[in-house]
Design goal:
101 residues, alpha+beta, four-stranded antiparallel beta sheet
Length: 101
């Protein structure tokens, strides 16, 4: 973990709700946050940037009430990773795994 944070990292996880974020939610952040991170477009529409924590948030309730919760969560994870990595200038092609055969 120390090595990852010594350079760049994009992280995703689940927050059960406490402190400034009282509701359970999925989160995404980048360290250091690249320029434009807080205004980048993310999916789904229920996701938003929470400035107090410097993270994108997708409320658990939005995933739970979605017709396809797996897809809703995947959209959040994919869009925040791709957006942050692109803004940071990461080589997404070099970081991608080949399709499973």
């Amino acid at each position: 973990m120390r090595e990852a944070y010594s350079h760049e990292v994009i992280s995703h996880g689940f927050w059960p709700g406490s402190g400034p974020m009282q509701e359970p939610a999925f989160y995404a952040y980048a360290v250091p946050a690249p320029a434009g991170f807080e205004t980048m477009a993310v999916r789904p529409a229920a996701a938003y940037y929470f400035g107090e924590m410097g993270e994108f948030i997708l409320p658990y309730a939005a995933v739970r009430s979605s017709a396809d919760g797996d897809r809703t969560l995947a959209e959040f994870l994919d869009s925040t990773y791709e957006g942050a990595a692109t803004l940071a200038g990461w080589d997404l092609a070099a970081l991608s795994l080949p399709p499973a055969s």
